[in-house]
Amino acid sequence: MANETLAQIEHTSQLIIFQVKNVSKLLGKAWFELELARSDLRELIELHEKWEEENGLNQEHQQ
After folding, report:
1. Is the pLDDT of residue 62 over 60?
2. How far is residue 9's CA from residue 11's CA, in Å, rounded to a whole number?
3. What span, in angstroms and rounded, lies between the C-alpha atoms of 50 and 4?
4. Are 58 and 52 in contact (CB under 8 A)?
5. What is the pLDDT of residues 2-21, one digit of tens each?
6. pTM confidence score
7. What would the pLDDT profile of 37-57 be if each residue is shown by its tens digit?
8. Please, are residues 53 and 60 in contact by the beta-carbon 8 Å criterion?
9. What distance lies between CA 26 and its chain's CA centroid?
10. 37-31-35 Cα angle (round to 5)
11. Which residues 6+ apart lie within 8 Å of 62 measured at CB?
12. Element (H, E) at 32
């Protein structure tokens, strides 16, 4: 019975290690995607501001 319990503990520990490594990889991918989204958002804002200036809509830059 003790060997069976020890085997269950080992198996569960291995599952936890695998899951933590998987979460770590997913977090790394999520941070990368977040940085890509932030970069795209900055570009979109810059392009929108340029478009507003070209069309006389950006009062902040005209004053």
Report:
1. no
2. 5
3. 69
4. yes
5. 899 999 999 999 999 999 99
6. 0.65
7. 999 999 999 999 999 999 998
8. no
9. 8
10. 30
11. 53, 56
12. helix 2-54
Q: What tokens does 30 get?
A: 């999520």
Question: Within 10 A of 45 (CB to CB), how many other CB atoms are there?
Answer: 10
| Unique residue bearing structure tokens 């977090």 | 27
What is the 8-class DSSP label of residue 6? H
First CA to last CA distance, the chain: 82
| Amino acid in position 6 | L
Where is pLDDT greater, at 23 or 59?
23
Domain locations in the chain? 2-62
Asked if residue 49 lies in contact with residue 61, where contact means CB atoms within 8 angstroms, the answer is yes
Residue count of the chain:
63
* Cα 32 off chain centre by: 6
